[in-house]
Predict the 3D structure of the following.
Amino acid sequence: METGFVVAMAQIATGIATLVVALFLAAQLILQRRQLDIAHQDSFRELGFAARTRNEELLLARLTNKSLLNSYMKVGAGIDSPSNEETHQFLNYMRLLYLQMINEWNLGVNAKNVEYFKGRLGTLMGTVGERRYYLTNGRIIVGTVFQLSDLMKLGDVVYEELEGSPVPA
């Protein structure tokens, strides 16, 4: 056989082998990409589930802890004169609720669903004491500490809807 012919056949065989390997690797990349997309969806669902679970735990704490419930009812209603301990308990409980909402916002849980967060803020400002907390602490936590101006603007809208007047300047 002629040497040139053998060299040409070897080059063609090498080219075909290289093409087969490249196609195989491309297929592997596509499969890996699909697996990563599925893993991402699973982790996003897990974040949402963890956030809902944490919200339920905080609500359950209020319902099952008589001291916390009394503090929450007293300070939240804004009618009775709470003790320093009751005020402290209420303020820290509310802080936990706000931090949980901020975690959801920052993690993108519910994909910045405005209606979801309006609902969350509505539950955080359902009573006179809770709206007072928003003015004295909640806005500072959301707007100043975490610098979430969009969430604070949404909070101001909810406050105005519930209170019937805008946030005092």
